[in-house]
Amino acid sequence: MNSVKEQMNFVKEQILVKEVQHNLVELEGLIANQSDSNWSEPNLVTTELGDVLNGIWLGMTTGEQLGTFSKRDNEILNNLYAKLNQYPSDELYSFVDLTGEDKKNFEELRKTLRHVGLGLNISISASMDSFLKQAEELGEKINSPIK
Question: CA–CA separation, 60 vs 98, rounded Å?
Fold first, then answer.
């Protein structure tokens, strides 16, 4: 039988690797799709960004409650959350209207996601260490505040 610690790490990895990493890949694909279709449905992007932010928040909260995050893990995720939270995202019952500048910023985010290895048709490791490295690099490469 698995130890409690192994079970807690599994929960943390399920949330971050499966949810956040997967949603970041989806976000990259949706930005590409919207860019190619002249942003015909921008709320697909802003809704997905909301899912990413919710996943990071859930991961941080769960990791903190279970005591499975190192101080460094927390710093990486807090930084990534703060950087991604600069972009417009939808709120409950309310879609955001994107400006031309917002769309340009999302297209830059797409390039950054691909650069760190998070994108459609890119081989992605499902390990926690690999994801945290990607999250750290992504957090470092996103400008704050966004240009």
Answer: 28
Q: How far apart are CA 73 and CA 80, in angstroms?
A: 11
- Which residue has better confidence, 21 or 93? 21
Please report how the helices 128-141 and 100-115 are oriented relative to each other, as an axis angle in degrees rounded to 10: 140
Other C-beta atoms within 10 Å of 77: how many? Answer: 23
Alpha-carbon gap, residue 146 to 73, rounded angstroms: 24
Q: Are 31 and 45 in contact (CB under 8 A)?
A: yes
Q: How far apart are CA 132 and CA 76, in angstroms?
A: 7
Q: DSSP string of 1-20?
A: ---HHHHHHHHHHIIIIIII
Closest CA to 48 of 63, 18, 65, 28: 28
Residue 67 has pLDDT above 70, yes or no: yes
- Indicate the pTM of the whole model: 0.90
- Asked if 44 and 34 count as a contact pair (C-beta separation under 8 A), the reply is yes
